[in-house]
Amino acid sequence: MKTAFQSRLWTVLRIDNVLYLVVKFEYRRGGRGATTINLRLKNLLEGNSVDRQFDGEVKMDDVTLDRAKFEYLYESAWEYFFMNNETFEQIELGEDNIWDNKFYLTEGMIVDVQQYEGKFIGISLPTNVRLTIETCDPGVKGNTADGKVMKDAVTNTGLSLKIPGFVEQGEDIMVNTESGEYSERAK
Question: What is the pLDDT of residue 176?
Fold first, then answer.
């Protein structure tokens, strides 16, 4: 059991005897310490999504998934190919299993492939990934050293995000996979 507040992206919950994957998580603090949790849940059996709101302390059944390490190989026609480096088993997952995680996948990346009772649920990524800035707005002259001036950019994987003004096209950056935001320059 876990509370609604403890549920995070890509966790699987059993609500009213139906399995749901958390695909969006937002919380708001209210008066007197009350917390409201807004979740977008994907029904794992039917494939549809639903938005639900919970009190932060509501107890939910946490479902344990089977996980295996797979290497990301490539994408072709919205299918994503992975290989288990121990057994050399290859699988392909559709965009409905990958969701927005596709923007963080780079060739050779090791991910956790999640299954429940033999059905592929999705993938779990590292918290931070290294991406390259493919295109970005030109830098603005002025006070950019403190990182407060932000500009639009697109990475080599197609992710659109805001980056500090001092980061230039062709540079590698670290991106947080949970928030989709710039973390730092890659070292």
Answer: 94
> Which pair of structure tokens corresponds to residue 157?
């994987």
First to last CA, the chain: 39
How confident is the model over 77-120, as pLDDT tens digits? 999 999 998 999 999 999 888 888 999 999 999 999 988 888 78
> Which residue, of 101, 124, 147, is where some domain finishes?
124
CB 121, CB 108: distance < 8 Å:
no
Domain containing residue 15: CATH number: 2.30.30.30
Cα 108 from chain centroid (whole Å): 18
Looking at residue 29, its pLDDT comes to: 84
**Closest among 105, 117, 120 to 158, alpha carbons compared:** 105
Chain position carrying tokens 């490539």: 74
The answer, yes or no, to whether residue 143 has pLDDT greater than 70, is no
Do residues 103 and 53 both lie within one domain? Answer: no
The per-residue pLDDT of the chain, averaged, comes to: 88
**CATH number, domain with residue 150:** 2.40.50.140
